[in-house]
Amino acid sequence: MRGIxxxxxxxxxxxxxxxxxxxxxxxALLGENGAGKTTLMNILYGLYRPDQGxxxxxxxxxxxxxxxxxxxxxxxMIHQHFMLVPTLSVAENVALGLPSSRGFLLDLDVVTRRIxxxxxxxxxxxxxxAMVWQLAVGEQQRVEILKxxxxxxxxxILDEPTAVLTPQEVRELFATLRRMAGEGHSLIFISHxxxxxxxxxxxxxxxxxxRVVKTLPTSEATREELARLMVGREVLLRVExxxxxxxxxxxxxxxxxxxxxxxxxxxxxxxLAxxxxxxLGIAGVSGNGQRELAEVIAGLRTxxxxxxxxxxxxTTGWSPERLLKHGLAYIPEERMRxxxxxxxxxxxxxxxxxxxxRPFASxxxxxxxxxxxxxxxxxxxxxxxxxxxxxxxxNLSGGNIQKIVLARELSREPRVLVAxxxxxxxxxxxxxxIHQRLIAQRAKGTATLLISEDLDExxxxxxxxxxxxxxxxxxxxxxxxxxxxxxxxxxxxxHKV
Amino acid sequence: MHKGxxxxxxxxxxxxxxxxxxxxxxxTVLALLVGAVMLLLLGVNPLQAYSAMVSGAFGSSNxxxxxxxxxxxxxxxxxxxxxxxxxxxxxxxxEGQLVAGAVAATAVALSLSHWPGWAIIPLCLTVGxxxxxxxxGIAGVLKAYLNVNEILSTIMLNMIxxxxxxxxxxxxxxxxxxxxxxxxxxxxxxxxVTTDLPRLVPTRLHAGTALAVLLAVLxxxxxxxxxxxxxxxxxxxxxxxxxxxxxxxxxxxxLSLILGGALAGLGGAVQVLGLHHxxxxxxxxxxxxGGAGFNGIVAALFGKLHPLGTIPASILFxxxxxxxxxxQRAVQVPSSFITALNxxxxxxxxGSDILxxxxxxxxxxxx
Lengths: 497, 367
Ligand SMILES: Nc1ncnc2c1ncn2[C@@H]1O[C@H](COP(=O)(O)OP(=O)(O)OP(=O)(O)O)[C@@H](O)[C@H]1O
Ligand SMILES: [Mg+2]
Hints:
The structure holds two protein chains of two kinds.
Chain A: E1 2-8, E2 11-17, E3 26-31, H1 37-44, E4 52-57, E5 60-62, H2 67-72, E6 75-78, H3 90-95, H4 108-122, H5 137-150, E7 155-159, H6 167-182, E8 186-190, H7 194-200, E9 203-208, E10 211-217, H8 223-231, E11 249-259, E12 265-275, E13 279-283, H9 290-297, E14 305-310, E15 313-314, H10 320-325, E16 328-331, H11 335-339, H12 346-350, E17 361-362, E18 365-366, H13 368-381, H14 398-410, E19 416-420, H15 428-443, E20 447-451, H16 455-461, E21 464-469, E22 472-478, H17 484-491
Parallel strand pairs in A: 3-8, 3-9, 6-7, 7-8, 13-20, 13-21, 16-19, 19-20
Antiparallel strand pairs in A: 1-2, 1-4, 4-5, 9-10, 11-12, 11-14, 14-15, 17-18, 21-22
Helix pairs in contact in A: 14-15
Chain B: H1 3-8, H2 11-21, H3 23-41, H4 46-58, H5 61-86, H6 94-111, H7 117-146, H8 150-170, H9 176-181, H10 207-225, H11 227-237, H12 239-244, H13 249-276, H14 286-289, H15 292-302, H16 307-331, H17 335-363
Residues 37-38, 397-398 of chain A line the site of magnesium ion.
């Protein structure tokens, strides 16, 4: 890609970017939220048209006007949000939109055979006859990769593929990627996690504010160097946690049971207590009841048994409105669904929970002056990259949307905070900032329940760590005594050892 | 960042979005072109026909007044639709809500005919507003508490309202003179002149039109400047996030149906007080409403569900109705052609809306 320029209203997302990938290479693309990574890849995949610049493939200038063009040229892309049809089988999804070898008749047996071959070659464990809705996230991702390989992709783009995976799945994915590179495929790998980039890639390109800062061989890179290149200053990769005097129990869960969406019990007798000034980390492979736990506390799911107490009051069955007035803040895991209104502006989203309260409203009228200055302050404090406070939220990059949720929730000075995957998909300087804010909140006496799949994050922030497995707490360990190995075992269901 | 570059190009997208904002207008022109082909097939000179139509709608102060009078109920219903659709509920009950408001206002106007105008007119309008609110509110309660689909319930409520109207106009509310004369036409007596809405100029144009325009401004302020409007819009755009943010989603969906119904009901009261001065029926809903309950939905969509956009959209549809009648008289086309022309405009407008929405999605990548 040569001299790629892409402008959105008010933003220069890509500014004369030169970027190349060699055959058999894994090339990592790094950059903060909004640096322009996804935009550049969307251009390569034909989803956006560049304003300037050209794309060369094997030395030849090519015009890519649509994903169909890209696929024909051997380019595949795994989006962060998968594009599979849940009600179809794996083989049907792979064959979708492709001509059949038998004209109008389906050739699913041929497809199935070919999928088996490909899975063997690349170590992608997938059952071609399984229904997609039954698959875990990691499996769905393997289907997406198979789909691209099946279509003959030589160049595969992976936009934050590890954000949704468990550590075990990440290891498997990396093994597959190495095999693909070994077979001569080229891979573009986007991630915010530096250790992943260092372990998997051959070269790294760092973007900042839409420009290439540097391209360097991974062997010459260090974590600190990459962080500095991305952010433009030194970054603390670890937060300082000073000891905090623990207060009373703020959040207490007593023998909590609840059903999941499919009607089976997702929480099976959870009992926990979080004190003022404490961060309790919930570790665990996703899908073991963490989401349901957060929803029950936030008043979005009714428990079938048990009690939630906040500040000594029984809040079981309270409405979300009453809970948030009572001092509960909630950072939902599915931020696009539960956290923000896509078609509202940045400013409107920042007051989603406070718009009826002073000083944002007098009577039924909203005070736009106050709202505007409040929004500007949060945009500044949380370093939210947006053209303006009136911009539609949906135009922001993923990480910046998360910053909006965080800004809103943390500014409410919560007594109890439930934070689910607060830094998923968020860049390192924002992660650093969010971690600092969570720690600062702890110092102010907030009781925090931190749900995360990222063990580093859990170990970094928590005072105590509870591990969830199949709807139960298999054990609680003190942060000072916890090790990654021990937590890993517990996450697989082993009781506290 | 190249700020200068960004500023220099800001103008182009503005012109572009202005161009696309007017798509309903282009769609209307296209529909009229297709209509012209049909006219040719009918052996009528389209130029002659359309010029009759334009002069019928705008050619004189009387024509203009008629256009505005026809636009008025569309605007009332359309404003209600703006609120309901923004709140994520598909209110198809404009017909029933118009009728409910009109019947209620009629009952009050007939029974309190000795009251002075300054008291009876506001009372009738309030009663019409409340009756529409109740009619919309029934669908709202059903949706909020029993999870009944509002499209089905509002359509059913249309039928109930019409049958209720037929019953009342053939029974308790029927003009006693008719009964005496034995002609039994299903209509009420003319209301006392104290209930007549003031005329604005010496035409059929009445104060109800001004009220509708004023309300459009108020609805705009309501939706975008108040906390209630904010919540209605939030619920319509993302009920899950709204619920998590402490908004009672069901309550606000119900509220948007109540308010939508209330505005249509007020429109019904304005129709009887300002235009007909009595109520009548031909047995169907459209006999009294003229289809305003449905055309109001189209006008609101035409106005991009924006209260201020709904004003010109309603006027355009009013002009279409008035002008088409004039055209029919001038060039002698069958009345079914007029219905067809109306349908063509609706199809083209709705189609263009889908197209421009799809383009907007793609334009993100090209702006
Ligand atoms: N469709 C769009 N319309 C307007 N602006 C956009 C659009 N898509 C992206 N942008 C803007 O372009 C810039 C680059 O966004 P992009 O999504 O490429 O960032 P990114 O590097 O992928 O960030 P992240 O790590 O958060 O995913 C951002 O400022 C974003 O707000
Ligand atoms: Mg991105």
